[in-house]
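Please predict the structure of the following assembly.
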Amino acid sequence: MLRSNTDQPDAHRAARGSRRVSRAARLSGTTNQKEQHMLRGSCACGRVRYEIRGNLLGPVTYCHCWRCRKHSGSSFGTTAGVAASDFVVVAGEELLSDWESSHGVRRYFASCCGSPIFKRDEADPTFLGFRLGTLDSDPHVSVEVHFMVGSKAPWVDIRDSLPQDAQGVPFGERD
Ligand SMILES: [Zn+2]
Ligand SMILES: [Zn+2]
C-alpha cells in the first residue's frame, strides 16, 4: 500500500491557495479571460478531445518524479494545475481510463492510445493536475521550476537556470 503523502508533487499544491493566475492572464488583463484563454487539446490518436475553459493555474513544472516519468514514457512530465470546473471532455470521454498512482490520486489517460491527460486527488477534486503535452493550443505560459529533481533520470542534464526542487527518491526506486 502506498503512502498517502506521496505523489504530492506537484508544486501545484503550493499554488492552490492563491490560485495564482498564469503569466498570460496577468498580461492580458481581466477582460473576457475565459474566451481569450480557451485551450484545446487531444490525445495522440485524436479520439479524446478536451477544452480548458479558463486559465492554467501555475506554476508550470517539469516534474522528474518516477510517476510522471513512467506515466509519460518520457524523461519527465510537464504539468500545471487546472480548475476541474474549467476542464471539459468534448469527445471520447468513455475512452478515458485511470490508475491509482498513490492513495486517493488517480491519473487519467486515453485508453485508445495511452496519452496521459490529467490527475485528480480525491482530497480536492476541484483541482486537477494537468499534463501540457496533449495541448493543441498555446497556453502562453513558461515553465518555472524543475520539481522532484532527486528522482531525475540519469540521462537528463539540466542546463537551464530554472530553480530546482531537490525532493524525490533516487532513480530506479519507488515510494
Ligand atoms: Zn487516443
Ligand atoms: Zn511528478
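The longest strand covers residues 57-63. The chain has one domain: 12-151.
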